[in-house]
Amino acid sequence: MVDEMPEMSLKAIGVVHNGLSTPPTPRSDWEKMTSEIVIDSRLTEALDGIEGFSHIIVLFWMHRLPKGDTPLMQRPMGNPARPLKGLFALRTPNRPNPIGKTTARLLERRGNILRVEGLDALDGSPVIDIKPYLPGYDAAIDATVPAWIIHD
Amino acid sequence: MVDEMPEMSLKAIGVVHNGLSTPPTPRSDWEKMTSEIVIDSRLTEALDGIEGFSHIIVLFWMHRLPKGDTPLMQRPMGNPARPLKGLFALRTPNRPNPIGKTTARLLERRGNILRVEGLDALDGSPVIDIKPYLPGYDAAIDATVPAWIIHD
Fold first, then answer.
1. Which of A89-93, A124-128, B26-30, B87-91 has the lowest mean pLDDT?
2. What is the mean pLDDT of residues B117-128?
3. What number is the ipTM of this complex?
4. What is the DSSP letter of B111?
5. Helix, strand, or coil here: A107?
6. pLDDT of A69 over the 70 cut
7. Which residues have CB under 8 Å from B143's CB, separation 6+?
8. By the 8 A CB rule, do B88 and A46 touch?
9. What does pLDDT average to over chain A?
10. How many CB pairs under 8 A join A and B?
11. Confidence tier at A5 by pLDDT (50, 70, 90)
C-alpha cells in the first residue's frame, strides 16, 4: 500500500531566523522566544491578510536532526526514567517525516517578514507552510491527554 | 536563500480510508465524518500510547488537487463575492506544499488502524504524520481572527 504512494517533495517557502543553533534550556523558554520568518520574496503577496490574525500555524522542516535511526518507541522528553512510548504518541522531533507544527503568536508582518513569538524552530529551519490559526477549527475544547504525559 | 534549501521529501506513513472522492456539501459535514487511517503495519508499534489521547493532529498530503497553478491571492471559500486574500491567510488546499493539518477526534485505535472523526481528507490521501494533540501547546486561548473570515 504505502509503497505505491506518489512522490511527495516539498519546497521551502521561507526560513526561520532566531540565532538559535540548539534548543533552549529549559525548553519552556521557547514560549517567549521571538523569531523572524523570512518568506521567499516572490511569495510576499500570498501573505496579504495574515496580519489580521493573532496566531499562525507554522509547518517547518527540522533540518538539524541527525539523519539515520528513528526508533519506533522513544522516551517522553528523552527522560530515561520514563517508560517507552510510540513516537506518534509523542512530539519528539525524531519522526519518519521531520515536520514541526507550531502555533505561534504573530507579532508583526512587515512585507515578506513575519515576526512571531513561541516558534520552537532552530535558526535556518526551512518553512514549508503558514496557515492562519482558526480557533473553531484548530482547537479541541474538550481534549484530554493521558496521565503519563503530564508528569514532567 | 530559498534555492539553497535541502531536498525535502516525504514518506507516506499511512493512508486515509473514508470512501470520499470529493468534499461533502456543505463543508461542515466533515465535522461528523468518520475515517480510518491505516498506518503502515511496519510502524504499528509507533502508535503505542496514542489511545490515551482524545484528539490527534493529522498531517496529510492533499493528493487529489490538480497540479499546476497556485495563485498567490485567492477568494475565501472560493466565493466569487469575497475579496482576494493571500493564500497564507487562507486554509485553501491550493498551496505551494499541499499539506493538510487537521485536529481530529480519536475514536479508537485497533492495531495499526486509527478511527477518527472530523478528518477533512479525501479517500486515499497519504498520511505523513500523526501527533498527539496537546491543549497547552496546540491551542491559543486568546486567539483572534479578522472580521472578513467570519462572514461565510
1. B26-30
2. 97
3. 0.94
4. T
5. strand
6. yes
7. A53, A54, A55, A133, A135, A139
8. yes
9. 93
10. 244
11. low
Burial class (CB in 10 A: 0-12, 13-18, 19+), B7: exposed
Beta carbons of B140 and A134 less than 8 Å apart = no
In this prediction the pTM is 0.95
Indicate the pLDDT class of residue B26, thresholds 50, 70 and 90: confident
All three cell numbers of A29, joined, read: 523558554
Tell me if B2 and A8 make a contact (CB, 8 A cut-off). Answer: no
- Contact list in B for residue A67 (CB cut-off 8 A) is none
Q: Which chain B positions have a beta carbon within 8 Å of A45's beta carbon?
A: 72-73, 86
Alpha carbons within 13 angstroms on the beta-carbon side of residue B121 total: 31
* Distance (Å, whole) CA A28 – CA B75: 38
Q: In one letter, which amino acid is B137?
A: Y
Asked if pLDDT for residue A51 goes beyond 70, the answer is yes
**What's the rounded Cα separation, in Å, for the pair A10 and A6?**
13
Query: Residue B130 burial (CB < 10 Å; 0-12/13-18/19+)?
Result: buried
From start to end of chain A, where are the E strands? 8-10, 14-17, 34-39, 55-61, 73-74, 85-86, 99-110, 113-117, 126-132
pLDDT of res. B2: 47
Candidates B56, B66, B48, B61; CA nearest to B12 is B61
